């Protein structure tokens, strides 16, 4: 059984069938890419995983539980995070303080217990945040203001904030869109580093084939709202259905 199982998902926007009987099985601790031409329905599908859209029909199971009808914050609490669309970065806090925020948010109430418990909890949260910064290669910058960061560092910080919630499943919608090649390669390295550092599952929507083939263990190809192929990367490029879907894109 996969960690994310999608069966028969349909989504219509007026006269447009954006998702047409989508089936998807994402195995735990893998990087699963969803590729396809513009307008294929990739973002719509991802929005059905995070509770921003509700499918008209079909099931979405995460870790054995249905996600249908749940609110975005509930799905987030179950262990599903969307990267690079994290809560805002607070520019008047330091980098590590920003990484501590998601953990504080998760523990709400813990600080009403006692001063002792509060100090203990804060120490744990800070140590956890330090580890997240280490994992994304920003440990040396932890006490810097979050106001003056390069774009690359901003991405790393967003990733650390996301990881601080200990998600089981990370969703990324075109993580390298609009990036120059050097930034793209840095992002690929960062994602690889994270994937290898812990038990975590990635679903990556991506247009850039270089990114897809650098990262993915498994690929689903979406075209006109339907998964036309699901296979290992080495079988995707030569697949005539995939070539046809990309013609004219
Ligand atoms: P992709 O991410 O693969 O480029 P999308 O999921 O964004 O594709 O869009 C799939 C189709 O659904 C497109 O034709 C798009 O115009 C349409 N669409 C997406 N969101 C909406 C919406 N909220 N209302 C109407 N049509 C939409
Ligand atoms: Mg999209």
From TrEMBL:
GO terms for molecular function: ATP binding; ATP hydrolysis activity. GO terms for cellular component: plasma membrane. SMART domains: AAA (SM00382). It holds the Pfam family BCA_ABC_TP_C. Residues 4-249 form the ABC transporter domain. InterPro entries: AAA+_ATPase, ABC_AA/LPS_Transport, ABC_transporter-like_ATP-bd, BCA_ABC_TP_C, P-loop_NTPase. Keywords: ATP-binding, Nucleotide-binding, Transport. It comes from the Bacteria. This is Glutamine transport ATP-binding protein GlnQ. It comes from Pontivivens insulae. The gene is glnQ_3.
